[in-house]
Amino acid sequence: MSQTQAYVLDGSLNEVPAGVAGELYLGGINLARGYLKRAGLTAERFIAAANGSRLYRTGDLVRWNNEGQLEYLGRIDHQVKVRGFRIELGEIEAGLQGQPEVREAVVVANEGPAGTRLVAYVSGNAGQVIDTAALKQKLGEALPDYMVPSVIVELEALPLNANGKVDRKALPVPAITSDKPYEAPQGPIAETIAAIWAEVLQMEKVGIHDNFFDLGGHSLLLVRVHRLLEDRLRTPVALVQLFKYPTVGSLAQWMERGAAEPAASSPTAGDDRALRQRAALLQRRKSAERVN
């Protein structure tokens, strides 16, 4: 539209670089004076820019691509706060839809006994098979770990309402289960670890090969696990080791051998993810005052 300017701004009204999500603001001579007889909404949506001009807040989440075009990611009102981080659900959805096997995707924040968790729902392109574990790993390479959904649910098609939009209320509520065959923990240490995880994650049982983060755990819950472990095993455990050994088996093996001798298993993708979880916890601590 001629004589209309588009700006992509962050929460402090600073322009963001290409590829970074922000809210779309419009300016120019085509801008209206405001909403008729709705002074409150006018004050909320029409703001004064630093140069003295007026801008309109669209509420749309967008980003500039490398070709100088705007990509629509969703609505700002789908912004949620999870473990102290403000998250744009549209940015996660865009990451999912950028995968060749995904036709459509939607992400919601579900409240549960273990706190708020992100759940993604996807449907696949014709002839494509969706590997949800691989999809989570791809997202983890592109997004901060706190933005990676705890669960990805594959559906034949996303439910739609009468207006043709995704009906979020009709999405099935998933149960967090392990993707590994259950194998009972052996030994008092492994059994105690599994019991604590099951208690904290509100699960019926946890197997020896289960990964704490793949079961929906996160860094704040791990702090609670750390306290319970030290209390019940009467043994000091460095919190960093819980990030380093995110499965029941690897953590039990390390505790049985002692801190001076590493566990025999080599680092895995799950271990890498655990380290990113630790980084997310540190980032949250540094930015807690800013985001709150």
UniProtKB/TrEMBL annotation:
<dbReference type="GO" id="GO:0072330">
    <property type="term" value="P:monocarboxylic acid biosynthetic process"/>
</dbReference>
<dbReference type="InterPro" id="IPR036736">
    <property type="entry name" value="ACP-like_sf"/>
</dbReference>
<dbReference type="InterPro" id="IPR045851">
    <property type="entry name" value="AMP-bd_C_sf"/>
</dbReference>
<feature type="domain" description="Carrier">
    <location>
        <begin position="184"/>
        <end position="259"/>
    </location>
</feature>
<dbReference type="InterPro" id="IPR009081">
    <property type="entry name" value="PP-bd_ACP"/>
</dbReference>
<keyword id="KW-0597">Phosphoprotein</keyword>
<dbReference type="GO" id="GO:0005829">
    <property type="term" value="C:cytosol"/>
</dbReference>
<keyword id="KW-0596">Phosphopantetheine</keyword>
<dbReference type="InterPro" id="IPR025110">
    <property type="entry name" value="AMP-bd_C"/>
</dbReference>
<dbReference type="GO" id="GO:0044550">
    <property type="term" value="P:secondary metabolite biosynthetic process"/>
</dbReference>
<dbReference type="Pfam" id="PF00550">
    <property type="entry name" value="PP-binding"/>
</dbReference>
<dbReference type="GO" id="GO:0043041">
    <property type="term" value="P:amino acid activation for nonribosomal peptide biosynthetic process"/>
</dbReference>
<dbReference type="InterPro" id="IPR020806">
    <property type="entry name" value="PKS_PP-bd"/>
</dbReference>
<dbReference type="InterPro" id="IPR042099">
    <property type="entry name" value="ANL_N_sf"/>
</dbReference>
<dbReference type="GO" id="GO:0031177">
    <property type="term" value="F:phosphopantetheine binding"/>
</dbReference>
<dbReference type="Pfam" id="PF13193">
    <property type="entry name" value="AMP-binding_C"/>
</dbReference>
<protein>
    <submittedName>
        <fullName>Acyl carrier protein</fullName>
    </submittedName>
</protein>
